[in-house]
Amino acid sequence: MNTTFLRIDMMMRLFAGFIFLFFVLFSSTAQNFLPLNYDTLQRKHEINLVGSGEFAASSVSNKLTNYFIFGGEIPNDLITRLDGKQRSLNRIGFYAEPTLEYINYSIQPFKTKNWGIIVKAGMFSSGAARYTNGLFGLMFRGNEPYLGSEIDLSNMVVGTTTAHKIGFGLIDGKSKSSVSLNIYGITNYIGAYLGDASFKQDESGFAAELLLTGGRADITSTGPYYKGIGVGVDANFFFKLGPEEKPSFLQFSIQNLGVGFINKNIVRYSMDTLIQYDGYTISNLTNGETIFGEGKNIGDELGLKRDTVSKTIALPFTVQIGKIIDEHNTKMFQFFYGGRVYIQNGAIPMLYAGAHYRSKKWFRMGIGVSYGGYTGFRANLYAQGAWKQFNIGLATSDVVGAIGLGKGYGGSLSLSYRFNN
Fold first, then answer.
1. Which of 18, 22, 47, 188 pairs with 358 at a CA distance of 20 to 30 A?
2. Chain-centre distance of CA 283, in angstroms?
3. Cα–Cα distance measured from residue 58 to residue 98, given in angstroms and rounded to the nearest whole number
4. Confidence (pLDDT) at 375
5. Within its chain, how far is the Cα of 396 from the centroid?
């Protein structure tokens, strides 16, 4: 293989690797598969700590992800197998949201209503990405397998938002329905996409062409810790269905519905360019010059335009509706099911269902399945301890992922202490 071809291969691996890691490491969302044990008992105070996190992908196996986490050399046969499983467009995402909330049912701002107050604090980091099979191939196989062909890099998108969150709201003492108004301190935001983009080369590898049309990346700048402020709402509504002697309960939930305002802290890179390489240009590398020649700015040659802008963003939010577990029901088995929609680029609606086991004393457990979000089918498992005042639960949203297989990882923890006197 000639030196010129090696230089093209090295350059395209670096270019594809940068974009792939950009889409993977800065992408994401998750579901808390620990079902809510719903009861209508009157209380005075309640403290809840809930944390959930997840990484999921449609076409990236944990066998590959584990190498990025634990290190090691990635086997070529693994790359070959995964490359054959990539679709024209693939999904990947992550989500993390720990929240601490305090509920006081004794303080009632409206004396004619049985409404207590709810105060919460936490953070969330959520992202999503969509990438092409061509990008995956360039990243892990280089450009040699694509000699004489064109690789589609169009319609890729990535978005991520990280923020701290403080909320205050009202909760119905009997139905437990609640609404809270939240203030968000935005610490990080990325929104990027590529419109029409492609890479093609001749069979010799001496000439290559990179087309980038309609691409843009908005990234929060370095500087102040908080890059912007946001406002949004969380809402949980519970509905009683069926006969009085055997009721079922339905939950409708909206989380983080709102907007953020980032003032002069967004660095915007936009591109609209056609770059052509030939053997003479690439050979300049042997003289210690840049990819584009001596004294030339790579950003300028790529057609990147840099601006500092303000931006109003929509916060990533979720909508969920489903049948939940009735804590007053003494049956050994109950069933739960529902759906969740992630309002982010790249995700698809998620459906889930499962069975809940209740012992005669304090132990609870359940198993279920889900499909959608950023991956396909997954098995879910959880266990709970429920006492008069204290409740603890631990769950995994991907049983196979928990043992290092599958296409993602996910788990959640729930702690609750209730003051009944």
1. 47
2. 42
3. 25
4. 87
5. 16
pTM: 0.82
Angle at alpha carbon of residue 414, lines to 240 and 347, rounded to 5°: 75
Give the model's pLDDT for residue 27: 41
**Helix, strand, coil distribution of the chain in percent, nearest 5:** 15, 55, 30
| Burial class of 201 by CB neighbour count within 10 A (0 to 12, 13 to 18, 19+) | buried
Is residue 392's pLDDT more than 50?
yes
Q: Is 117 helix (H, G, I), strand (E, B) or coil?
A: strand
- The reported pLDDT for the residue numbered 26 is 44
Structure-model confidence comparison of residues 272 and 29, the more confident one: 272
Q: Is the pLDDT of residue 1 over 80?
A: no
Q: What pLDDT, on the 0 to 100 scale, is given for residue 227? A: 93
Strand 37-38 and strand 325-326: the pairing is parallel
Q: Based on C-alpha coordinates, what's the Rg of the chain?
A: 25
The tokens for 100 are 């601490």
Strands 363-373 and 375-386 turn out to be antiparallel
In the structure, what pLDDT confidence band is assigned to residue 165 with cuts at 50, 70 and 90? very high
* Three-class DSSP category at 126: strand
**Amino acid letter for position 19:** I
Q: Read out DSSP for 298-311?
A: HHHHTTEEEEEEEE
Q: Which residue has the tokens 């007053």?
A: 328
Answer positive or negative: Cα dihedral of 138, 143, 144, 150: positive
- The mean pLDDT of the chain is 82
Task: Give me the mean pLDDT over the 371-399 stretch.
Answer: 89
SS3 track for 376-415: EEEEEEEEEEECCCEEEEEEECCHHHHCCCCCEEEEEEEE
Greater pLDDT, 178 or 296: 178
